[in-house]
Design a protein that fits this description.
By secondary structure, this protein is mainly α. The protein has a domain at 63-110. 92% of the residues lie in helices and 0% in strands. The protein has helices at residues 2-26, 30-44, 48-62, 64-109. The longest helix is centred in the last third of the chain and has 46 residues, at 64-109. The protein is rod-shaped. The termini are far apart. Pfam families: DUF5101 (PF17031). InterPro entries: DUF5101. Residues 1-23 are annotated as: Disordered.
């Protein structure tokens, strides 16, 4: 009797595990399937150029490429702001230099 109960319980557990496995497979999106497939091909191939290209494709699909773009864009914006600040400081220094030259010329004439 206990064996039958144990077998029945094991059978139920196996069925639920199979269902969970099927659900896990069903929940894979097309994107995940493509990424997984490209990763498998990348691991199999011996062509390093193809491997590099596949890895770049995976990064692009996963959005990692976009993160690099965002970081570079932020760095560029910071550099442009700093450049603008330096340009304004340069104009101020040029104006101050001209003013001091005029004052020096006035003092030399007196």
């Amino acid at each position: 009797m206990l064996e039958k109960l144990g077998d029945k319980t094991n059978a139920l557990n196996m069925r639920s595990m199979r269902k969970e496995g099927k659900e896990a497979v069903k929940t894979l999106t097309d994107k995940e399937k493509v990424v997984r497939y490209l990763g498998e091909i990348s691991n199999i191939t011996k062509d390093y150029s193809l491997k590099y290209d596949l890895n770049k494709c995976i990064e692009l699909i996963e959005g990692k490429e976009n993160q690099e773009y965002i970081e570079l864009k932020g760095a560029l914006e910071e550099a442009l702001e700093e450049s603008e600040t330096i340009r304004k400081d340069n104009y101020d220094l040029i104006a101050e230099n001209e003013y001091l030259k005029e004052r020096l010329n006035e003092n030399n004439q007196n």
